[in-house]
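A favour, since you know our structure tokens better than I do. What I am after is a single protein written out in full by you. Could you add the entry underneath, on a fresh line?


***
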Amino acid sequence: MCDTLVRVLEGRVLFAKNSDRDPNEAQVLDWQPRRAHPAGARLRCTWIEIPQARATHAVLLSRPFWMWGAEIGTNEHGVTIGNEAVFTRQPYAATGLTGMDLLRLGLERAATAAEAVEVITALLETHGQGGGCGHERRAFTYHNSFLVADPRGAFVLETAGRRWQAQRIYDAWSLSNGLTLPGIADESDRVKTAVSACRARRAITTPAAHAATDVGSMMRALRDHGTADHAPHYHWSNGALAAPCVHAGGLLTSSQTTASWVADLRPGAIQHWATATAAPCVSLFKPVAVAEPVDLGAPTDRADDSLWWRHERLHRRVLRDPARLRPLVVCERDRIEAGWLAAPPPSRAAFAEGDAALAAWTARARAAPAIDTRPAIARRYWRIRDRRAGL
């Protein structure tokens, strides 16, 4: 499950996305340079092979470690895309391009948001969408919606099988795993859409998108737990899926926000911010750019020394008792981010400063007394995932 928001302002477009996936499914920031390709070249995507373009743009992607495609990304021209799983009455194909493949292909082959919509829909009509999209349950599949933005505007694109509908955005929009556009919304699978809790999350993200005026307001929208105490509230069926900052811990479905991204898109002045870690509520948004690659490790679903897993050691400790442990992180986190928002440092410097802060926060959280306040179902769920990850 995911939430993606966009706000179109005069001379500026704000974009934000939380990517919600399986809790041990590490997500990596992946820098890919501009490339030329020989005539007749073929491209292997996640499940199928398609003809390669003669040239591809430089891209920065946030993708699940095992996929070719990406959940969030941007290219050298400022085109920025986030995708959403949607559940429809159209048949699900056993193979095809995943929504994440379509996102990456749109970034690699388009120089504007409008062109990216054309690229994605042409590929959808030609190759179809399908194939397994889950990590824990590889056969889990869905159709896709997209928010596509660049410094001059944005589009919402929704699909059901090979059907699609697109619309230019003139103010604000949010997507939360449900179809929203007239002409295709009637394809929605009502049961699966209800289980996704998309309406509860969109009731939070839609007003947040309309109210957003800067990068900070988009970051706050992605950190929202939908509660007055700013702590996740769990339901036995789907964990804390009813708010944008998603935490796993349910019996029927359990997603976790595994990566977050905010973009400030202006002609001639583009700035991206990515956590490169799970749980934006206890993460730093670091400045990132297509032209500034940073080595963050190559995580998988087993705990290692990559940034993603080092942060998980903090995140999973804080989850036990957020009321007591979260304040040990957020005050200093907010101070660091405020300085960066005022004057963004180079990416390498920001990640280095973030690493030092993460080490201090982790030591502080480990030393603090805490009681696991989560429901028994959530505690059991996380014990299993910790064991699988080798934590």
Observations:
- Residues 347-367 form the longest helix (21 residues).
- The two ends are 25 Å apart (CA to CA).
